[in-house]
Hints:
The protein has 25 helices and 20 strands. By secondary structure, the chain is α+β, with helices and mostly antiparallel strands. A hairpin with a 2-residue loop joins β2 and β3. The longest helix is centred in the C-terminal third of the chain and has 41 residues, at about 445-485. α10 (about 210-235) crosses α11 (about 240-250) and α23 crosses α24. Residues about 545-555 and about 665-675 have low confidence and may be disordered. It folds into 5 domains: about 5-65; about 75-205, At1g16640 B3 domain (Beta Barrel); about 210-285, no CATH class; about 310-475, no CATH class; about 490-610 and about 650-670, Structural Genomics Hypothetical 15.5 Kd Protein In mrcA-pckA Intergenic Region, Chain A, CATH 3.10.290.30. About 45% of the residues lie in helices and about 15% in strands. The strands form 5 sheets. It has a 7-stranded antiparallel β-sheet with strand order 17-16-18-19-14-15-20, sandwiched between helices. A 5-stranded mixed β-sheet has the order 4-10-11-6-7, with no helix packed on it.
Amino acid sequence: MTAIQEEALYDFLDNTAGAFELYDAVSYIRRIEPKRINRLALEVEAFIGLKKLAFPAGRRQWMSRRAFFGSLPFVISPTRLELLNGILIPGHRCVPFANSSLMPQEYTFYWEGSSVPFTTTEGSPEEFYPYYSIFGEEYAPQYVARDNAENEEAFNNDPYDDPPEVSIKTLDMRNIYREAAFVPGDRFVVRTLDWKTGGFELKKAGRDEWDSAELEAWAVAAEEGFEKSFEMLGPGSSTEEQIAFAYWYGGPAMKNVPAYALEDFLYKKTERIESAAYGIETRFWYAGREIPDREDLDPGNVRPDETPVEAVLHKLKIPVSEFVIQSYVRDALFRGEKNSMQALVRLVPSSVESDDRDMQLLSEYTEEVLKEFRKFYSPFTDKAMGSIRLRAGELHTAVIDLAARLCKGDINTSWLPRHTFIILSQIQNHTASVMEDLDSDEPPQEMELEALDNSLDSMIETYEDIKELIDEALDSYRRNKLALIRAGSASGTVTERLVQLSISGIDVWRRLILPESFTLAELHKIIQLVFGWHNSFNYRFIKEKFAEESGFSGIREMDLNTPIQAMEAQSNIELFYEYGSKWIVRIMILSREETPVTRPVRCVAGAGTAPPEFIDGPVKFKKVLYALESGNDMERLDARQKLGTEFMPGEFDLDACNRNLNAGYTAKSRGGPPEK
């Protein structure tokens, strides 16, 4: 589709208040832009499916988000802070019932037929972030920054530190709270009045007005809806997409009140759904499980109506549009290069396996673009964009090159850091978007250029961090292989396994090598040592999805005498360790290595400081960390007492972890000879 046709499709969806067929969308687009008639239907169908723009309702039939959400009620529960200050922060409260093209400060709310006035509220950014976290915790600063120009300027002034104070647009609710006698626990039932412009109607629902059994039924339906969306879409492209499809799959019970406010359900009610790390982003996911990594770069941003040149790059696992190729050509002109081959080498690094036919097509295309652009190129006009584009191109090339080398198969990828390819994909997608924005003859506004430059700084820093972790992992892998060779021959061999331990709900994990003859009882001792726990609670190992084998729902508690080597025979390379009532450790049994001698258990990678075992689970742990970082003096003192004087948030000392393992669990301690 052309850009005009894409815009027409979005306009059609915004104005469609019911189910529609492919013919309806195509007919509307043709009235706006009649080009490419023969392919238009296929391109529209592919575009809707790839971008998840509407809900599937049959063969070549969909329901628009406006049609689905426009008739459904949802709930907002004002916090004590909002009631105390007489405000309501729109934030993420209207997801997914609001047009996603609108910002929260653009909504209009009505109470008893009259629009609610806006006011401004000042405070530190950290005070406001929780009201935007459903968009993704990593995006909360961007939403606060984009609330107004002053905030955006303050954030751009120092991309590495938040400004001390910002202001956001909030609803002035003082009269409404007073007249309606609002108390903590009361809530608003909200309905969409105008999807396109973001109009919403508010009505009060008292805290004791709804039956608890009906609320529980809504929560069960919501959990099933989320889990169905995970099953069908995986982690999806955003949290908003996940939530929208959770409502679609949630059934009738989720589509009416009584209902929980979405933030109350996700952060307070459910124990089956949690916010999980997804590379440098977050998604909602099955509680206690890690979102699996990819095996290469994510092709999700590849257009469904890709051109022949884009198709070649997609085949080479370089998922970019022609606009990115053109940006590489502009970069060549900015560098003063005379031919297109230098741009092509950066676009397709030598580590990418390609054939002569593919490279010939790409070479002809880039040469043609270079000749066309050279006629009108102005170094003066391009000065502001050129340096940013150059940095973006170098980062994009580095990511493509690194991903290609990691995919060649000469290393065991289970040794790589968690979510290696997810993180590389996110950097690649973002950098490609920057290059698309800079494929222009006219520079954007200065503030927009500054924002692009700052975001690029962040991506470069993230790339350098993951590259360092990858290099460390590869060094560990090579040292391990070298140790196997140096060990020499012996009458028998010991089989070792790479095992990853991840604490559910927080980004704390360890990766260890241990003999696969170890039992689960011995693995329990190791878990205690690597996380610095003291065996204070009951524990058990469980296997989920037991229903698939035995025909009933539930879990199976595993025998502590079961050796790790038996897990694979039972198709169980993933299991869970429950410690007390609040902590769950996800265990992934990864690659196998054979060694001629018994070696001590050792940790080869990890991240994050493990929580003290007496803190009541991941949610409480996050609150204590927040108090330590951003609380008042009393809150910080209380947090430090709970965490201990030696606790350092976010740090992981690999050497200290191995010293702890060696001191507490050596071959000698389990009855075998110590290593010499």
